[in-house]
Design a protein that fits this description.
five-stranded antiparallel sheet; alpha+beta; globular; Arc Repressor Mutant, subunit A; single chain; disordered C terminus; 6 helices
Length: 186
């Protein structure tokens, strides 16, 4: 028996669409960097469960070696985005020396038709179709053609995605949401 995919997660005034990598607050788009989005998604998928820093880093970054400060920064940005103050813990609770727990009530929605209707531009952003702008940033290919420089192209794209995500009138799709075209392969 196949397990149904979650079309969206609802918590407080927010609704997150995993397949589209979108977060809405009361129908309006909320911009998140890709890793902050991934952090939130992990919390929603494991809501009410205590997650250690090691578990979170494994779920978010996998085998990639990153510093613990990256996780701390993502959680700080996530709390700020969700409107939590240091004294207010309606979404995330830190348990010293243990980890983090997402404490808000999370509703999993499986109805893809309803999710698709809510993601229409007129419903999700409060603007008409003509005003909605969307962009995807792909990794850059440097002219040096040096394999050692491939990470620089990814870094440039990531920095650009982060900067563009701050523009509220612009929907920035993460690189992972864009299918690779053979035209762009070496």
């Amino acid at each position: 028996m196949t397990e149904k995919q979650v079309a969206s997660y609802e918590f407080g005034p927010y609704r997150l669409f995993p397949s589209e990598r979108l977060l809405l607050r009361e129908g309006r788009l909320v911009s998140l960097t890709p890793k902050v989005f991934d952090t939130l998604l992990v919390f929603l998928r494991h809501s009410r469960r205590l997650l250690s820093k090691d578990e979170l880093m494994e779920m978010i970054w996998g085998d990639t070696v990153v510093e613990e400060g990256n996780l701390t920064q993502n959680i700080f940005v996530l709390r700020k985005t969700l409107g939590e103050s240091p004294q207010d813990h309606q979404y995330l609770v830190t348990l010293p020396l243990q980890g983090y727990r997402f404490v808000a009530k999370v509703k999993e929605c499986y109805d893809e038709t309803e999710a698709a209707a809510l993601m229409r531009p007129e419903n999700s952003t409060g603007v008409d179709d003509k005003a909605l702008k969307s962009i995807a940033v792909m990794p850059f290919t440097l002219l040096t053609n040096s394999p050692a420089q491939d990470f620089a192209g990814i870094g440039i794209a990531d920095a650009l995605i982060t900067k563009l995500s701050n523009i509220q009138q612009l929907v920035v799709r993460p690189t992972s949401a864009v299918p690779r075209l053979s035209l762009f392969k070496k």
